[in-house]
Amino acid sequence: MCRENPYFSYVDIVVRRVYHFSERDEIMERDLSKLPAAAFDHPELDPAVGVDYCGSAEDFLFILKTYQESIEGRVAQIEADIEAGDLEALTLVVHSLKSSSRAIGAEAFVATAKALEEAGKQGDLEAVRRDAPALLDEYRKLGDIIKSILDSCP
Fold first, then answer.
1. Which among 7, 12, 19, 138 counts the fewest CB atoms within 10 Å?
2. Which residues, 6+ apart, have CB-to-CB distance to 137 below 8 Å?
3. Which domain holds residue 101?
4. What predicted TM-score, i.e. pTM, was given to this entire model?
5. What's the start-to-end Cα distance of the chain, in Å?
6. Domain harbouring 90, CATH code
């Protein structure tokens, strides 16, 4: 039938996609309702992006917990890499941080991490040393936000 009438096949595909998105939106709404209210109190995090990226509210909360638990270790690693002038190692850590931040819906922080990653790739140690403290402050603040969200879970 596809070969006989491609127009109807195309319409069928569009209708199925619209239905699929509609169904996906319903699932997303149900999942978002499983999150604590505190998850929606902070513009630094977009829970809808996080749940969509992680697949479910439960997985999003698990990723938040893992993210929050890794902060001090990553901060120490970034500080050590800057102190040693090891831009290659720093760039890898910040790239990983950028990716995990995207998974939790921390888009503004992703942009900050991307800028530091680019400075590292360019070998600009001066820019890294100048911009890293702001990134680390923002990272710690994000950790505090996540902790408050996790603490509000039943």
1. 7
2. none
3. 34-151
4. 0.80
5. 53
6. 1.20.120
